[in-house]
Amino acid sequence: QVQLVESGGGLVQPGGSLRLSCAASGRIFSIYAMGWYRQPPGKQRELVAVIPSAGSTNYADSVKGRFTISGDNAKNTVYLQMNSLKPEDTAVYYCKLIAYRSSGSPVEYWGQGTQVTVSS
Hints:
There is one protein chain. It contains no helices and 11 strands. It has strands spanning 3-7, 10-12, 18-25, 30-39, 46-52, 58-59, 67-72, 77-82, 91-100, 106-110, 114-118. The strands form 2 sheets. Strands 2, 4, 5, 6, 9, 10 and 11 form a 7-stranded mixed β-sheet that branches. The chain has a 4-stranded antiparallel β-sheet with strand order 1-3-8-7, with no helix packed on it. β4 (30-39) and β5 (46-52) form a beta hairpin. The N and C termini lie far apart (40 Å).
């Protein structure tokens, strides 16, 4: 069983910063990528940023230059540094892990979500 535990959400004023963390534990054979998604109130879940085990990071246009995704392979942990936060960044942020089973088939896991609220 694989678990993703997120932390770091909260309430912040516009222009402020937050750092989200997501730690994966359990039987993980091979990680393909980890990433962050968010779901604003009344909207669909959307990609924020993804970091593959090999290759370049990818960001949504709306967060480029403000958010930075990074990972610690030894700890199976991914981080999202969020700067210059705007009210439109308010959402539930979810961590996602894409891995391969020993059979070679892909599998996805999601965290429980952490609330980020940007408001004065």
